[in-house]
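Why should sequence recovery work at all? Because a backbone constrains its sequence more than one might expect. Tight turns favour small or flexible residues, buried strands favour hydrophobic ones, and helices have their own preferences. The token representation captures these environments compactly. In the example below, the structure is given first.
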């Protein structure tokens, strides 16, 4: 991916941000990677202004990259001025949200990161959080209430056990973002992305299995 991006740089240098954004939204990882690289200095400049308690500087930078990715997805030239201005808002907002959440010793709701109906393993698996929690009891109102309580407990447990990278990777995975794009968004190699996702899955599985034994 890095080699391909380097070869494409001269071509992309001639393109306007709006053209690159259109391609990135269509799933072109090279266009996305070019934009992430182009505005990396901007993310770092913003990240240096903030401090996350108990986190490394790179964690703050990663939150900024997530904000930049959000800007790529949400930018509308008809509603905003320049992409750079819009990206600044998204980057700052994402970092400040993480800082505020950390200061409250909380994180963003885990339904941002986890879907109870998406398989935790490969696409051929039917194992998901919903059927682990509520198998055979879906129609019982009392069980629905218990089910909701258990999901809340699960989310709280995952907040505490998943690292920042694991949460971000799981978040992107649940949105259907492929590894190549995750690598560009988070500034991590695909092997690191895969390892983080596997760790998150194992932690989720271990938690669910421990609850089933009680």
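From this structural description, the recovered sequence reads:
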């Amino acid at each position: 991916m890095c080699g391909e991006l380097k070869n494409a740089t001269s071509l992309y240098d001639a393109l306007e941000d709006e053209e690159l954004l259109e391609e990135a939204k269509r799933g072109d990882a090279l266009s996305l990677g070019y934009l992430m690289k182009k505005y990396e200095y901007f993310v770092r400049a913003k990240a240096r202004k903030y401090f996350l308690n108990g986190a490394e500087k790179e964690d703050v930078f990663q939150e900024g990259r997530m904000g930049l990715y959000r800007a790529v997805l949400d930018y509308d030239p008809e509603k905003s001025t320049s992409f750079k201005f819009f990206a600044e808002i998204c980057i700052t907002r994402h970092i400040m949200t993480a800082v505020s959440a950390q200061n409250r010793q909380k994180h963003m709701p885990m339904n941002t990161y986890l879907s109870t109906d998406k398989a935790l393993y490969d696409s051929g698996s039917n194992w998901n959080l919903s059927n682990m929690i509520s198998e055979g009891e879906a129609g019982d109102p009392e069980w629905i209430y218990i089910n909701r309580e258990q999901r809340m407990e699960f989310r709280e447990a995952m907040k505490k056990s998943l690292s920042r990278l694991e949460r971000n990777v799981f978040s992107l995975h649940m949105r259907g973002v492929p590894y190549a794009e995750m690598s560009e968004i988070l500034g991590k190699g695909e092997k690191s992305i895969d390892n983080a996702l596997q760790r998150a899955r194992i932690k989720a599985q271990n938690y669910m299995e421990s609850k089933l034994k009680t």
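A few observations help interpret the result. Residues 108-214 form one domain.
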